[in-house]
Every structure is written in structure tokens, then in C-alpha cells.
Amino acid sequence: MKQVLLIIAVVFTAFSIQAQEKEINWMTMDEALSAQAKSPKKIMMDVYTKWCGPCKLLDKKTFHNEDVVAYVNENYYAVKFNAEGNENINYKGQNFANPNYDSSKANVRNAQHELAGALQITAYPTIVFFDEEGNTIAPLPGYKSPPQLELYLKLFVNDGHKSIDSKEDWVKYQEGFDFEFKAE
């Protein structure tokens, strides 16, 4: 009987570990900035709203892709940010909130969070990348498939964006890029 329970425990643990690897380690912006101070990494922020269809698709298709999960967890601090939520955030010494938040509209269109405004977010979803000091690198509006996101994840992680000075440089980067992430 003890052997059966031990086997069941081992199998359950194996499935739990495997399930954990299929999830991005999401955190708040405050948690990411705090972690960044201890161990510098870039931040990838998923700016979403609860009513946004493409945001849900991005979460389901891209952010649960095993290649994306592994790469993001290893190389970035990942932040989930509801652009119409009521979270208080301290960013660059300034407090951001959503003073016009209406709890009765929690799952439908609501007021925009001050941080979303400060980051000039105009579309959902938008993925915003930040450097190791919390400075904005670039926002990427719209849904991105795993290979489309890979292009940017690998560009920003090693500061490759700093050597792209023209449209021609960008085209050359894309044409020479070796895609590794599976589309599904």
C-alpha cells in the first residue's frame, strides 16, 4: 500500500512540475521592479483589459506556448497589468492609480489606469518592454503569435534594438532571424 501511495505521489509531483513549466511566472510591476533591483533583467509587461478578445487570445495562444514560457521565465520578469484595473503602482518615484475606476464595470470597459496613460497605451493588448533600470524600451501593440513575439523577445534581451537605426536595419534583422518558437 505504501508503494502505491509513493508511486501516486511521484506521478502527481511530476505532473505538477510539468504544469508549472507551462505558465509564465507573472508578477506585479512593483514586484518586478523590486526583483530587478536585486537581480537585473528586462521586464516584459502584458497590458490587457478584461473585455479584450485579442488579449485573451494572446494569453491562451502565445503566453501558454511552451517556447514562450521557457524563454520569458529565463530572460525576463513578466508583468500582467490590467490597463483598466484599480491597482496602485509606484513607478519611477511616482504613484499611479485609477481614480475613476468603477467596480460595477470590473469586467467591461472601465476608466484607463494612469500608468497606461503615462505609457501612452492606445490599443489592447500591448506588450511593453523595459530595460534593466525600468526605462521603457518599446511598446508592441496588438496580438503577437509565438514566432512574432520571439522576434522581439530576442531583439530586446541582448540590446539588439540599439543597433537598429533604420528601416533597412530592421528588414535585415527580420530577414536574418532564425525562428525557433513553434507557432502552437
From TrEMBL:
Keywords from the UniProt entry: Signal
SUPFAM superfamilies linked: Thioredoxin-like
Residues annotated as transmembrane: none
UniProt domain Thioredoxin: residue ranges: 6-158
Keyword Signal: yes
Keyword Acetylation in record: no
Gene3D superfamilies membership: Glutaredoxin
Signal peptide: none
Protein name as catalogued: Thioredoxin domain-containing protein
Annotated organism of origin: hydrothermal vent metagenome
